Amino acid sequence: QQEVVSEESEEESNGVNLMEFSDEILLHILSYVPCTDLVLNVRRTCRKLATLCLDKSLTHTVLLQKDYKVDKDKVKQLMRDIGKEIYQLNMAGCYWLPSSTIDHVTRCKNLVKLNLSGCHVTSLRLSKMLSTLQHLRSLAIDVNPGFDASQLSSECKATLSRVSELKQTLYTPSYGVVPCCTSLEKLLLYFEILDRSREGFMLSGQLMVGESNVPHYQNLRIFYARLAPGYVNQEVVRLYLAVLSDRTPENLHAFLISAPGSFAETGATKNLLDSMARNVRLDALQLPKAWINGSGLLQHLKFNNPFYFSFSRCTLSGGHLIQRVINGGKDLKSLTSLNLSGCVHCLAPESLFRKAEDDIDSSILESLVVSCCNLRHLNLSAAHHHSSESIGNHLCQLLSRLKHLLSLALPVCSITDVAASVEKPPTTPNLVPQTFGRKVRIGIQTYPKNLGDQANQKIESSVFWALMGSLRFLETLEIIGSSFSSAMPRNEPAIRNSLPPCVRAQSVGDSEVAAISQLTYLQSLTLAQLPNILTGSGLVSIGLQCQHLRTLSLANLGMMGKVVYMSALMDMLKHCKCLRDLRLEQPYFCAGAQFFQALSHCSSLQRLCIVSRSGTLQSDAVMSFMANCLEVIMCHMFMGESLTVCKNLQQSLVRSFQAERPALNVVIFPLLHEDLTEVIRDVPMRHLDEITLFKSRVAEEPPNLWW
Asked: Which helix (H) or strand (E) holds 337?
């Protein structure tokens, strides 16, 4: 207390007083404070702040979507105090708030945009709320089992008729509120319907009785649909598309369907695509791979000023990409986001007689780089993009010309120096076994302490080092093995065996990871299936240099039977003060006292996910970690422990911390247990989609698709 007093007196002697700053500066500072804190706490400190905290620039838009400390009482008080001043309200992913909380939104009479995705809303509550929001133009909701459109009042339907933007997440076969939205210009649909009920019954994609109303698409400009795995999702989305196939909206400029696996083309969808080719000019396009593969569709579609393309998992060749999509290198400076994930032939002139592991044609990549010079998001993962020995034509050298890149996803085998991979044989078998080894004792690994000297020895002249040096403003980087697959897929049992890494990737290890530390503004990093990680020393460099890092995902690094980078990881974590999300996937991972003690240095950590076949945990260490890290609201651990150990720990965590942390979500479960998929289905979609499930997220959807 004496120190605080002395600091205050020193401030006074220097003439520095926060309240003497101009209103403009103070408003800018206050804009970084959560709205709940401003209204419920900060404004009660003095008269000046009481006025500033209620300034329209701070109350116009209220974001609660990741305010994990907000509870129903705070929301009630917030709406009571400033409800009439709120024009945009985002409560997406507030799964912990009871459905009765939504009733208080009715105080926001002037709402124009409202996001309730992930919130519990019944048909009756939705009807009551929307009946009072006459100015609403943008809405995001979930449609859960039991939703009944017949319960919507005439006043509610009147509000919906004026809504021009709708985002709807479907957990049951339904049109939801789409038929009521007669002025739709933007429609985003997320299909999360499971093929089986909890009781094991097969579900049908047919809509429920009373769901025969036809959607109104005549004013539609943007159509986006993202499907989770499952046949029912495909059945339901076809019903939404049927109306589009009858009459394509004249103003349609973005048509995007993201569908995993096989989604066959039908006569109706073919008619829709033919109509689009005749009548519209697109700015954004994404289609299921079966709709593009082997068809001449791209040759006939017309584009205006495209800003987003996704050809994920398509067999599109580089020749077709250049000729049909980027128009021989013309008019693509408007393109800011490109997803070629899983396009194994996209950098080759043709795909007919080519093997996936053959060298790329650098001239195709060069044409792409020159034509799309303003790219900000590029995904080339899930493919073997091997550069030839031609000097100056390495993939990394060509990508270094894209100075505007903010996010980049690459396969591991694409970043290796050709000379190094030719001169140096693949790592010896005892370093990278192709199968899981026996369980070993995890000790403290040693690694070179002088990280700068280690980096200088090998990679300052490498193409990947140069690429990282040229992309100084990169915020998101993913380096993922071309054959990597997570041990925990979406709706299936855990994968027990993994494919070996690409031969070209065998030399990628610690020095390449150290090169990433040049990215001063890096916020999100994913590293998966890097075989030659020997100590993990490069991770420490990243922890020291990348002080803005918020999201870290590491999977299958180095030896598969031993966590060789544990010591370096613990050293890294001590420097990650801004880290919020950590995902670790590694066989035989030991989540013990030393690991959690190091993790406790991450004072901003909110979400933790560990996936480990044959992995172990220390319950006392987990409890101590959760007690020390007060910001953590998600703890998912899928390990090799018994069901009894997992259940006991989960119950202890919930019992000890749920009351203080209303958003707390804990799942501790054996990775190889047969009921894993049943447990996964109860995880809030926000956590499941953003961290628990592994996937490449670069250019996954168009930028700024929703607010």
From this structure: strand 337-339
| C-beta of residue 412 within 8 angstroms of C-beta of residue 427 | no
Instruction: Write down the H helix ranges in 342-462.
Output: 362-371, 395-399, 418-423, 451-458
Partners of 190 in beta bridges: 169, 226
**CA-based radius of gyration for the chain:** 26
CATH among 1.10.10.10, 1.10.275.10, 1.25.40.340, 3.80.10.10 for 395-416+462-487+499-691: 3.80.10.10
A 10 A CB-CB count for 389 gives 10
Cα 569–Cα 574–Cα 576 angle in degrees, nearest 5: 90
DSSP 196: B
The amino acid that residue 57 corresponds to is S
**Could you read off the pLDDT of 136-177 as tens digits, one per residue?**
999 999 999 999 999 999 999 999 999 999 999 999 999 999
Q: What is the 3-state secondary structure (H, E, C) of 490-539?
A: CCCCCCCCCCCCCHHHCCCEHHHHHHHHHCCCCCEEEEECCCECCCCHHH
DSSP, res 312: T
d(CA 91, CA 682): 20
Asked if residues 415 and 464 have their Cβ atoms less than 8 Å apart, the reply is: yes
Find tokens 């598309």 and name the residue.
241
| In contact, 412 and 696? CB cutoff 8 Å | no
Q: How many CB atoms are closer than 10 A to CB 325?
A: 23
**Ramachandran area for residue 556 (φ above 0: left; ψ -120 to 50: alpha; else beta):** left
> What's the CA gap between 500 and 506, in Å, rounded?
10
Spatial CA neighbour of 179 closest among 156, 206, 145, 195: 156
Spatial neighbors of 338 by CB under 8 A, at least 6 apart, are 308, 309, 310, 372, 375, 377, 378, 379, 699
Pairwise CA distance, residues 27 & 450, whole Å: 44
Residues of the chain with CATH 3.80.10.10: 395-416+462-487+499-691
pLDDT less than 70: residues of the chain: 1-16, 207-213, 294-295, 328-331, 351-352, 419-459, 496
List all residues 6 or more positions away from 587 whose beta carbon is below 8 Å from its beta carbon: 436, 556, 560, 561, 612, 613, 614, 615
